[in-house]
Amino acid sequence: MRAHPNASISAPASARSAEAKLDEAVGLARAIDLDVLESGIVPVSDIRPATYIGSGKVAEVAGLIKSVEAGLVVMDCALSPVQQRNLEKAWNAKVLDRTGLILEIFGRRARTREGTLQVELAHLTYQKSRLVRSWTHLERQRGGFGFLGGPGETQLEADRRLIEERIARLEAELDKVKRTRKLHRLSRQRVPYPIVALVGYTNAGKSTLFNRLSQAKVLASDMLFATLDPTLRAVDLPHGARVILSDTVGFISDLPTMLVAAFRATLEEVVEADVILHVRDMSHADADAQSHDVRDILHQLGIEVENGEGAAKLIEVWNKIDRLDADGRAVLSNLAQRQPAGRRPVLISALSGSGLAELTIEIEARIAATRVVLNLDLDSSDGAGISWLHRNAEVLSKDFSPEGRLAVTVRVDPANAGAVRAKFGVLE
Ligand SMILES: Nc1nc2c(ncn2[C@@H]2O[C@H](COP(=O)(O)OP(=O)(O)O)[C@@H](O)[C@H]2O)c(=O)[nH]1
Ligand SMILES: [Mg+2]
């Protein structure tokens, strides 16, 4: 689908939120690098069983598709397989509905084996539900071919049985992966740098901020990062701290329940993050409700952001302040100032770059607060020890002493501090 020009249509449930829904759908399409050529709202008074939208609209959109040479149409609604097929025929273009689009995004973002399996499982569950709903009228007896299914088995039953078998196999494999996950986490070699994960609603400005922050130059030859995927980038912050910045899949309104597990599995790195940037579109009418949803999902991921360790990790990034007038900005600024230090939201515009300096200072402060700095005393001939430190810790400084000793200052995740202490002499 990549690089296919495409159009996007929103068939909204309520007129009031139609614009917001369309914005979200366009944002979702862009999340998988689709080039959105046209987008619009189609009022639907009653859903047509054959094409979802009325025949006049089908013809109108057909003309549009032709003129902009679109290869794909995204419909922000739930289409039956019959509707999808009919529209594809009428438009001579690929058609994707909302769930299909979301599954596509999750599929690309799944990094772990568990994530991939969860997305596959969601895909099959989705297919199964569509079988039941809309293929019923195609049901027919399969006479004579007993070897293809049980005697008298219908096409629908055979299809459902195949899907159910694959679901059962996937579930068994998922179970196995989950049981060994804890083990993997412990043994997995962590990158020695702090991870800063961006979370927030689709369209909040995560990717814009990700790109802005990662403009800082980083050595391309650094082997550690050669294998990182495009949603991870190494960034050098102004005061010298190097972090791994992780863009995540956006939170989506009305996420179909069958996709919730798949969604969570694509957010694994958030669980391991040292700092979580909760990017919020403060110009959005639903900003508060969205924030509530995001915090709810973090809670479901096992990250308690209301207080304690989790709260120390989380920075609220109040984005898009350029879209507010002076009064609106003043209100937000006052609100932020009233929060205690260490909990204070940072006002930014990822687009104009304003507030980014304050944000990077805050990120560095949070890392300093959550990571442990250790002063180590090594024999200066201990080459193996030094390279171990470079792999497993952030080396802040190295100083040779006249006595042939090497004083190394490192910063580590609290979980690794014990191992470092045990391996090297620690100067208090
Ligand atoms: N006015 C304004 N627009 C922004 C700002 N940050 C992002 N945007 C726009 O909001 C839209 C969504 O941004 P994106 O970074 O893709 O959001 P994501 O879905 O969270 O990754 C894009 O059209 C951006 O240009 C901002 O600070 N101000
Ligand atoms: Mg994005």
Protein topology:
Elements: E1 5-10, H1 18-31, E2 35-41, H2 55-68, E3 72-75, H3 81-91, E4 94-97, H4 98-109, H5 113-134, H6 155-187, E5 195-200, H7 206-213, E6 232-236, E7 242-247, H8 260-265, H9 268-272, E8 275-281, H10 287-300, H11 308-313, E9 314-319, H12 326-337, E10 346-347, H13 356-370, E11 372-379, H14 383-392, E12 394-400, E13 405-412, H15 414-423, E14 425-427
Parallel strand pairs: 1-2, 1-3, 3-4, 5-7, 5-8, 8-9, 9-10
Antiparallel strand pairs: 6-7, 11-13, 11-14, 12-13
Bound molecules: guanosine-5'-diphosphate and magnesium ion.
Magnesium ion (MG) binds at residues 31, 206-207, 250.
Detailed description of the structure:
The model is unreliable at 11-16, 132-151 and 217-228 (pLDDT under 50). With 428 residues, the chain is α/β, with parallel strands linked by helices. It has 15 helices and 14 strands. α1 packs parallel to α4, α4 packs antiparallel against α5 and α5 (113-134) runs antiparallel to α6 (155-187). The relative contact order is 0.08. Helix content is 45%, strand content 18%. The longest helix has 33 residues, at 155-187. The termini are far apart. The strands form 3 sheets. The protein has a 6-stranded mixed beta sheet with strand order 6-7-5-8-9-10, with helices on both faces. The structure holds guanosine-5'-diphosphate and magnesium ion. The site of guanosine-5'-diphosphate (GDP) has 17 residues, from α7. Guanosine-5'-diphosphate binds next to α7.
